[in-house]
Amino acid sequence: MQIREILARHRTTFSFEFFPPKTPEAGQLLLERAAELARLHPSFVSVTYGAGGSTRDRTREVVVRLATELSLPAAAHLTCVGHTRSELTELLENYRARGIENIVALRGDRPENGGDFQPAADGLTYASELVELIRDRFGQDFSVAVAGYPEGHPETPSRIADLDHLKRKVDAGADVVITQLFFDNRDFYDFRERCELAGIEVPILAGIMPIASRKGIMRMASLCGARLPARLIRRLNQAGDDDKVVSDIGVDWATQQCRDLLDNQVRGIHLYTLNRCNATVEIYRRLGAEDSEALERLAHG
Fold first, then answer.
1. Which of 20, 48, 129, 293 is a good FRET partner for 72, with 20 to 30 A between their CA atoms?
2. Angle 248-63-152 (CA atoms, 0-180°, nearest 5)?
3. What's the domain range around 111?
4. Band of the pLDDT at 123, cuts 50, 70, 90?
5. Looking at the annotation, which residues are catalytic?
6. How many domains does the chain have?
């Protein structure tokens, strides 16, 4: 099922994101954890794409297995990095042939050495161009999601320019915006309001990441430019290097974010699972719901 159809059927969606495993053993573990999360009846799931297309085959394998073995609506991340137009078209044709109907269209990360992003020869420079390619070659065969940045894209100094980029992606044919992770809901609400003022009318799903470790979240925040509120930093400092305490703080903080988002009519919550299941299951438990369907009923009385 396509994400746009899911959004049309549900007032609030609850989706999960995974990353492709590095080994066959990790792949099997991921499927086992995804099977546990499937019991929560997520609206859809997505699988990320490695830098420079490095996980292309593994991403495709995981997406197809989630869709076929677990019967989950699955979305494949796809980036412009390292691919020509013909290679991107071939990848999309392969996804269509294997029954995958959802794509998360991204530009992709710049090189790890800090250099500027450089498209491949006969490649694409912007995510909006990837959305255009999908619509030109495949029409409505895919539902397309794009990324939004409540705190601004780290490579774009102007929030106005950043919103212009998002508007181009939506105008090119994107069905939904999934935001980068954030830890202060005020940033999301301001972003949502600015999108409305800019004429961006597609649903906006809030990206929430439960903190699993102090080291991990510091690295992730530095990469994506997410701001850690002082109150959260204080709690993490008090926890020190005790990952169990840090994880509990992360679940508690994410649960509070989700509860507040639901109270403020969020269109959907997209949980970055980090290929774990315990935090997501615990968030549902603390919200008082056994699955996404129950959570939607709670959100709307």
1. 129
2. 60
3. 3-287
4. confident
5. 17
6. 1
